[in-house]
Specification:
Layout: H1 4-7, E1 12-16, H2 23-38, E2 53-58, H3 64-77, E3 81-87, H4 90-100, E4 104-107, E5 116-123, E6 127-128, H5 131-141, E7 155-157, H6 161-169, E8 181-185, H7 191-199, E9 205-209, H8 231-240, E10 244-248, E11 255-258, H9 267-281, E12 286-290, H10 296-303, E13 307-311, H11 315-325, E14 329-331, E15 337-339, H12 348-362, H13 366-369, E16 377-378, E17 382-385, H14 389-399, E18 404-406, E19 411-414, E20 418-424, E21 430-437, H15 440-454
Parallel strand pairs: 2-3, 2-4, 3-7, 8-9, 8-10, 12-13, 12-14
Antiparallel strand pairs: 1-5, 4-5, 5-6, 10-11, 14-15, 16-21, 17-21, 18-19, 19-20, 20-21
Helix pairs in contact: 2-3, 2-5, 9-10, 9-12
Length: 459
């Protein structure tokens, strides 16, 4: 029996191929997903009708083609049709799920190394599926091979790229874009397909780095969250005098920006720029942000007339709060950017175009556009392995009993001129610290102070 608990993560399935994930297991997961959607045997979620088809896309990883075929066998064996979308970015699959009002599965391991593959799921209308909203039921149904149900479904193919391109472009006035010089490092990922398609015929001039689709990632890992994986892009921006660099992850749903000076922007800074730009056209709108973005994000939202709403970390929480609060936009420190008119799903391409449109409108280089939103110094996420995370968390909280704190997601303590969040990993004995202060010296001093408490290094 495969270790399903090990590969079913909070928001997706992910594992080594074939040690943890092979065709036989993928077929079982396909059947389980179909059975869950059909509501057999426990009934449908109250707010959703049973679908008649499942959309399936894949990234460029070598195992993707066989996995899609195996998954389709599992789904069609339960009587549902499968529509194969072919090679796609994750945000393209989300768009298909929203526009076609059908559940979907995307075969990708995102930024993980070449030996991995996985599956991201959504329900009809691009609604997220997590362990808290049904992925646990899929996992449990997949523990056994499910018998076929009724007549088998059909398998057809369709291409939604042209519609997706038109959708992405609809978020900006493409005629108002300036002829900016743009370099995109797509890291041999799905950005090599979708990024040129979106920019084709637009005024910004695009150069693509590592555009060949290659799931072995021969140039560098497709994880732009790590600064070392942006090094090639930063160097190329400086070499050619580009106005902006775009670093996409493997499934191209996230993007990090680099300015014309070769300096990267944090996800918080990009969130603030996009929020301010969108509030210019939608005054008074609600903007969502997770609780570990910079304090500059809610400050900028308020300064531009918006309503800032703070959430837990994670896309399922962001999307749920966006729906509850009728929010226009949401951003995370990890470079996930969510748009109400994108079925509340995230898209790095939409985010990139919105920033380019703001650069065009303002006439400012990105190095100037970013300055008003970079007010503090962040530690970045610092992981500590601890014997007992609960005990360590309690030790930290006791030390800050007199301070303003909350437990929305782990422990957040706000001391005015500095603050921190401490969260436990879902899968490992780790505590994750994010801290922000007024300057580098304060950040380093307070980080050392909190880490000493976390690791039990104080007297």
């Amino acid at each position: 029996m495969a270790d399903l608990d090990g590969i079913f993560k909070a928001y997706d399935v992910r594992g080594l191929v074939p040690e943890q994930l092979d065709e036989e297991l993928v077929e079982r997961i396909g059947a389980a997903f179909a059975r869950f959607l059909l509501g057999l045997p426990d009934g449908m979620p109250a707010d959703e009708r049973a679908p008649d088809r499942v959309l399936v896309g894949r990234d460029m990883r070598p195992s993707g083609t066989d996995f899609v075929q195996a998954f389709a066998r599992g789904v069609t064996g339960q009587g549902l049709d499968v529509v194969d979308l072919g090679l796609c970015s994750t945000d393209e699959v989300s768009f298909a799920s929203g526009s076609m009002d059908a559940p979907a599965a995307m075969f990708t391991a995102s930024h993980n190394p070449a030996g991995y593959n996985g599956i991201k799921f959504c329900r009809s209308g691009a609604r997220p599926l997590s362990l808290e909203t049904g992925l646990d039921r899929v996992r449990d149904l997949a523990r056994n091979k499910l018998a076929p149900q009724g007549s088998p479904g059909s398998l057809t193919t369709t291409d939604v790229l042209a519609d997706f391109v038109a959708h992405v472009r609809s978020f900006v006035d493409v005629d108002g874009l300036s002829p900016l010089s743009v370099v995109a490092d797509v890291a041999n990922g799905m950005g090599g397909l979708v990024v040129p398609a979106v920019f084709d015929g637009l005024k910004p001039r695009l150069e693509v780095m590592f555009g060949e689709l290659d799931g072995t990632f021969p140039n560098h890992p497709a994880d732009p969250l790590q600064p070392e994986n942006q090094a090639d892009l930063r160097a190329r921006v400086l070499e050619v005098g580009a106005d902006v660099g775009l670093a996409f992850d493997g499934d191209a749903d996230r993007v990090f920006l680099v300015d014309e000076l070769g300096q990267g922007l944090s996800g918080s800074t990009t969130t603030a720029i996009i929020a301010a730009a969108m509030l210019a056209d939608h005054p008074g709108a609600t903007i969502i942000h997770n609780l570990i973005v910079s304090k500059a994000v809610p400050e900028a939202i308020a300064e531009h007339g918006g309503v800032a709403v703070r959430t837990r970390v994670g896309h399922s929480f962001i999307k749920a709060v966006m729906a509850d609060r009728d929010a226009l936009f949401g951003g995370e420190h990890s470079a996930h950017y969510y748009f109400a008119d994108n079925y509340r799903a995230d898209s790095g391409l939409i985010a990139a175009l919105v920033v380019l449109a703001e650069m065009s409108r303002s006439g400012q280089p990105l190095s100037e556009l970013r300055k008003p939103y970079e007010r503090y110094v962040a530690s970045g996420e610092i992981n500590s392995t601890v014997t007992d995370p609960t005990d360590a968390m309690a030790r930290v909280e006791e030390a800050f009993m007199g301070s303003r704190r909350d437990h929305l997601d782990g422990l957040t303590v706000d001391l005015g001129d500095w603050w921190f969040n401490l969260r436990a990993s879902n899968t490992e004995p780790l505590l994750r610290l994010n801290l922000e202060a007024a300057d580098t010296a304060s950040m380093e001093r307070h980080s050392a102070e909190v880490l000493a408490l976390v690791r039990g290094e104080t007297d």
